[in-house]
Specification:
Elements lengths: L11 E5 L7 H13 L3 E4 L14 H13 L3 E6 L6 H4 L6 H5 L3 E4 L4 H11 L3 E3 L14 H10 L4 E6 L7 E11 H7 L12 E7 L3 H13 L8 E8 L12 H8 L7 E2 L13 E3 L2 E6 L3 E6 L3
Parallel strand pairs: 1-2, 1-3, 3-4, 4-5, 7-8, 8-9, 9-10
Antiparallel strand pairs: 5-11, 6-13, 7-12, 12-13
Length: 303
């Protein structure tokens, strides 16, 4: 895997909206927060544009992203938010200059499209982490944001989290891939579809009906994406919905059932995804995962 150069104070961070638009006030706050951390911020021309559900047309969003890919002064591309739309522009982009001079692409949710594409097609690491829509006004005090800045500056990412009753103990070491579950399912059969064999898979989801979550887990299972995993890390399963006739299982129980026949370690409630605590994960990075009855430790290699 190729590791983009880590950032240094004074470097420029480009902000783009690959999917949905973001309010001007959120971009103004993001610029201030980025500058408070010692970096420069450069928002794309269409970052706050509105075209139906999108931040501008496909052409406008792709143009913004392409400009950031090609600009040698931009050392990191930060997605303003998720939503929907990344898949509509990914194949419009020319990654030639990016491949000559890789840079960090950062975001989560719909940005899973980029994480999957960079891993599968180019073998380049990217960062699953918080985005400007979620930046608080007092960014210097926010744990998720501080961890993001630590990650892009090359500092160690070692996590310890509480045990969960559905965790499956075990120890493993492998590269981590994944992101939003619905987006991962939508990548199946495309060239952006990541190979999960021998990998630690990370999944998170938001606002889905429980039966849809169950269907997505069975989709991954039937596609051969779960049977040969080295491990599974389950992040936030937030704002999940049920029907009038109840599904009968929680989101975590649905996931646990889907992988019950396998023996790799499984960790639930990892603090990443659509929630206040959104710990950064370097997609494609080698990770040591240790799940015990008392706690979970996840350590990302520094190189």
């Amino acid at each position: 895997m190729i590791i983009p150069p880590y950032l240094e104070k004074g470097d420029t961070i480009g902000i783009v909206s690959a999917a949905k638009s973001i309010p001007e006030s959120k971009i103004e706050n993001a610029i201030k927060v980025i500058e408070d951390f010692g970096f420069k911020a450069r928002p794309g021309k269409n970052v706050t544009s509105v075209y139906h559900q999108f931040a501008g047309t496909d052409e406008e969003r792709a143009s913004d992203f392409q400009e950031m890919l090609d600009d040698s002064d931009v050392k990191m591309i930060l997605s303003s938010r998720g939503g929907y739309g990344s898949v509509r522009i990914i194949d419009r982009l020319d990654f030639d200059n990016f491949l000559k001079s890789p840079k960090w692409i950062v975001g989560f949710s719909d940005i899973t499209t980029f994480h999957s594409h960079l891993f599968s097609v180019y073998g380049i690491e990217s960062l699953h982490a918080t985005m400007p829509l979620n930046f608080p006004e007092k960014g210097m005090e926010d744990l998720s944001l501080n961890l993001l800045m630590s990650a892009v500056m090359g500092e160690k990412l070692n996590y310890e989290i509480d045990a969960h009753q559905l965790n499956r103990p075990g120890k493993t070491e492998a590269r981590i891939v994944g992101g939003n579950l619905a987006i991962l399912c939508s990548m199946l059969g495309s060239r952006s579809d990541p190979d999960t064999d021998g990998k630690i898979l990370f999944i998170e989801e938001v606002g889905e009906n429980l039966y849809r979550l169950d269907r997505m887990m069975w989709t991954l299972k039937r596609a051969g994406k779960l049977g040969n995993l080295a491990g599974l890390v389950v992040g936030g399963m937030t704002y999940m919905e049920d029907n009038d006739v109840k599904f009968g299982k929680s989101a975590q129980e649905i996931v646990a059932e889907a992988v019950s026949e396998f023996d790799f370690p499984v960790c639930f409630n990892f603090p990443a995804g659509h929630q206040d605590e959104n710990y950064p994960l370097i997609m494609g990075r080698n990770v040591k995962l240790d799940v015990t009855v008392d706690q979970v430790t996840l350590k990302l290699a520094t190189r």
